[in-house]
Design a protein that fits this description.
Blueprint: H1 12-23, E1 28-32, E2 38-43, E3 49-54, H2 61-77, E4 86-87, E5 96-100, E6 103-111, E7 116-117, H3 125-142, H4 149-152, H5 174-195, E8 200-203, E9 212-214, E10 220-223, E11 230-233, H6 235-244, H7 252-266, H8 271-297, H9 304-323, H10 325-335, H11 349-360, E12 374-378, E13 381-384, E14 389-392, H12 405-417, H13 427-440, E15 446-450, H14 453-468, E16 473-476, H15 485-488, E17 504-507, H16 524-530, H17 532-541, E18 548-552, H18 567-577, E19 581-585, H19 600-603, E20 610-613, E21 624-628, H20 630-637, H21 650-665, H22 668-685, E22 693-699, E23 702-707, H23 721-730, E24 733-734, E25 736-738, E26 744-747, H24 755-771
Parallel strand pairs: 14-24, 16-17, 16-18, 18-19, 19-20
Antiparallel strand pairs: 1-2, 2-3, 3-6, 4-6, 5-6, 7-9, 8-11, 9-10, 12-13, 13-14, 15-21, 20-21, 22-23, 23-26, 25-26
């Protein structure tokens, strides 16, 4: 390593003669500083300038050929990037060669970049951001460059080699030695191993203020001196620059923040790179006094600017320590667009419950006892704060799986690009609306976006009233359709004891297991549908009429019923005959849950006037929409405009389209059909061992398991539900309870649920029944 720390010193007349003969260069020569090379500026008679470099023979021809080839590669990859351009010899050779005495010296000629060397000056915040961008662009331009020499290069300034400088710690000022030893120890134990797993390529390796050019306004105009190129972790270019641009008269945290933020705007950092930066910056700062000590101990004088670097290195390390590594690392993460670390987990469940009650109300409204503290989701699995994983057989909102990578990336990418409202023409809302109407068919070609299923049902209800002139409605007894004031009336399950909506009538559930009509009855669907007749007549007599009936096609809150054939057709026909409309609430039943049908209402063979969708359509991202006939929407808008500020925003549209892509690409309609049937067969098998199970039913991945004390009497066994849910939880699966009597296990997992998942769930539920 020491061989290259003293630059050549060839006679100037020899260099001038060589430049004229081999490059055709002549003019006024002026010396430039260089740690390892003998450098000159040649100013030609026409005012143009060239950099003439006499390279150190110890560098090796391969390293210098690599530098020359890299510059030509950059010129082709990013022509606008302001770095020197290689000038070949008159014979078209990359490097010249000059023999003097017993040594042969490689010669490199480069274009001169205008601007002044930044040197001891400082960059403004805007310029630091641009410096970060330029670094990232340089990394991108070198990404595809391949050459063997940098991988074999042994360079004293390579941060990875800092442990070799450990003998020089004793030559530092006494007050600096302990700190230097601590940095070296951490580098060996933590940083160096982490670097082995980071992105690596050929990098510049030495972007510092004396290798950066600026214009009269202090804006960065170029990067020079590619003499320290190595194959190494990409993050080293950013870490080296961040360390070298720190000065005592600048805000250290602000300097690092702007460099990282600018870099990230071109090339996103990986999380491990961001977390290692503060340690790499300290290592870079420490290298300056260590290399200076190495030079001094070998009788080698440092360049003038080196002393300025040296004098501020240890003070800047102490400044970073004063700010605090955790604070600097958190700042770097923010600049790199990585959210901060999640809040500290409460030490106990009791602490978590107390905190929640303090800020979210006394009533917990949580599953299980004690409640689960969930910190991560992946596919069909949820992870609790204690690290245990649970199979999610309940949550329908993450429709295509928790944290689906394609959906998450679609959301993140769009959020990085644009998120605004539909008062502008936006591609995402338009394309998503077109895809929804294509899937809806049946004349439903008008889409209005909102932000949730509650909002969608509220809007559909408003449209229905406007179109029909009526104000009365129908829904299932114990239905749930949302939380707005208007839709709470359609949701008697919210608070059954307090439900009071004079303009709403409740339809008896079409329950062929325990209702007045069973599967053995003739035309059972029509029998249940006929029960709507007196209710419609009553609404008419009270002066309300019927504006709409609202139905969840899976009958989730009723216990996930197998509604008999013809039932919903009979309901829709009677409502329309009374002048009303049919609202298909597809928040829970749509998007393939009742596979192979995309929409739940199609399973029942009914054509709605409205389809409403909610958050499962965006895999949990807030999203809602009403899909209806254009004449209904047009009539509604005669009474005034409708606009939801962020309904149909760009990110919601991207999320919605990503979900549609996943459903299509992963064949999830077929998966819901096949896995759901397989799952129910497994659950039905438990009936042989556990008499508590009275019925297993459902369609696709919507399944209900009804609990009874006696299969003959069908007396609901809701009293065991609380304990059973906790036992199933203890066995590693999560399900819910449902039904008016609270005696139905509600199973509606993400529709990526597999047969292996079904086997796990059946086994867990079986063990829980055995323990019960």
């Amino acid at each position: 390593m020491l061989d290259t720390l003293r630059p050549p010193a060839l006679p100037l007349d020899l260099l001038q003669a060589f430049a004229l003969e081999y490059y055709g260069l002549s003019g006024a020569w002026s010396a430039l500083e260089g740690e390892r090379d003998q450098n000159y500026r040649i100013k030609n008679s026409d005012g143009r300038s060239t950099v003439f470099k006499v390279c150190h023979p110890a560098e090796g021809d391969a390293v210098l050929q690599c530098q020359a080839a890299a510059l030509e590669h950059i010129a082709a990859a990013d022509p606008a990037l302001t770095v020197p351009r290689l000038i070949r010899t008159r014979d078209g050779v990359l490097l010249g060669g000059l023999t003097h005495g017993a040594s042969s010296y490689p010669i490199m000629a480069l274009s001169w970049l205008e601007g002044r060397v930044l040197g001891g000056e400082t960059l403004a915040r805007e310029a630091l951001f641009e410096m970060g961008q330029l670094l990232a662009r340089l990394g991108l331009a070198l990404r595809g460059f391949i050459h063997g020499a940098p991988a074999e290069r042994d360079l004293v300034w390579d941060t990875r080699n800092i442990r070799r400088l450990a003998p020089e710690v004793g030559n530092l000022a006494p007050e600096d030695r302990a700190l230097a030893a601590e940095i070296l120890a951490r580098h060996e134990a933590v940083t160096a191993p982490a670097l082995r797993c980071m992105r690596a390529q050929i990098i510049h390796g030495d972007v510092h203020p004396h290798n950066v050019l600026v214009d009269a306004q202090g804006r960065v105009t170029g990067i020079i001196d590619f003499g320290d190129m190595v194959h190494g972790p990409l993050v080293l270019d950013l870490a080296n620059a961040a360390g070298d641009f720190l000065t005592p008269d600048m805000n250290a945290a602000g300097t690092i923040f702007e460099l990282v933020r600018g870099y990230r705007s071109v090339t996103p950092l990986e999380e491990a790179e961001a977390d290692a930066l503060v340690d790499l910056i300290e290592a870079r700062l420490l290298m300056t006094p260590l290399v200076d000590a190495l030079k001094a101990s070998n009788g080698i004088a440092s360049q003038d600017y080196f002393q300025a670097f040296n004098s501020r290195s240890m003070p800047m390390i102490r400044e970073l320590r004063r700010i605090g590594h955790d604070e600097v690392r958190a700042l770097i993460r923010r600049a790199a667009a990585f959210p901060g670390a999640p809040p500290q987990h409460p030490k106990t469940a009791e602490e978590a419950i107390a905190r929640r009650r303090r800020v979210m109300g006394e009533k917990l409204y949580v599953f299980y006892d004690p409640p689960l503290h969930i910190v991560k989701g992946e596919g069909v699995w949820l992870t609790a704060s204690d690290g245990r994983r649970y199979l999610d057989c309940y949550n329908n909102v993450p429709h295509v799986g928790h944290a689906h990578p394609y959906v998450a990336e679609a959301i993140a990418r769009q959020a990085r690009t644009l998120n605004t409202n539909t008062r502008y023409i936006t591609d995402q809302a338009l394309e998503y609306a077109e895809r929804l109407t294509e899937l809806a068919g049946e004349g439903l070609t008008a889409v209005t976006f909102v932000n949730s299923g509650s909002e969608a049902n509220d809007l559909a209800w408003r449209m229905a009233k406007a179109f029909t002139g009526h104000t009365g409605g129908l829904c299932m007894d114990f239905a749930y359709h949302g939380v707005s004031e208007a839709i709470d009336a359609f949701s008697p399950s919210n608070a059954p004891a307090h439900w009071n909506a004079p303009h709403i009538r409740l339809l008896p559930a079409p329950d062929v297991y325990r209702g007045p009509y069973g599967a053995q009855d003739a035309d059972v669907g029509e029998c249940y549908a006929a029960l709507a007749g007196p209710l419609i007549a009553e609404l008419r007599e009270k002066g309300f009429g019927v504006a709409a009936v609202m139905v969840d096609s899976a009958f989730m809150t009723n216990g996930i019923l197998d509604a008999p054939a013809g039932y919903l057709q009979g309901i829709a026909g009677r409502v329309r005959q009374a002048g009303g409309l049919f609202i298909a609430d597809e928040v829970q039943s749509g998007f393939g849950r009742m596979g192979p049908s995309f929409w739940g209402h199609r399973h029942h063979g009914v054509t709605p006037d409205f389809i409403t969708i909610g958050k499962p359509a965006g895999n949990g991202y807030p999203l809602g929409a009403v899909i209806t006939r254009p004449e209904i929407l047009s009539h509604f808008l005669q009474f005034g405009p409708f606009f939801s500020t962020f309904g149909g925003n760009n990110v919601a549209g991207a999320a919605g389209m990503a979900v549609l892509d996943v459903i299509r690409d992963e064949n999830l309609l077929e998966n819901a059909r096949d896995t759901g049937a397989y799952f129910r067969r497994g659950l039905s098998g438990l009936m042989q061992k556990h008499s508590l199970i009275g019925d297993v039913r459902g369609v696709g991945l919507a399944t209900g398991v009804e609990l009874v004390h006696n299969r003959a009497s069908k007396a609901p066994a809701g009293g065991v539900m609380h304990r059973l849910l906790n036992l199933i939880r203890d066995e590693g699966a999560l399900v819910g309870g449902e039904g008016k009597s609270g005696n139905v296990l509600k199973i509606r997992p993400p529709i990526v649920f597999s047969r292996a998942d079904a086997d796990f769930a059946v086994a867990a539920i079986g063990r829980a029944f055995a323990r019960l």
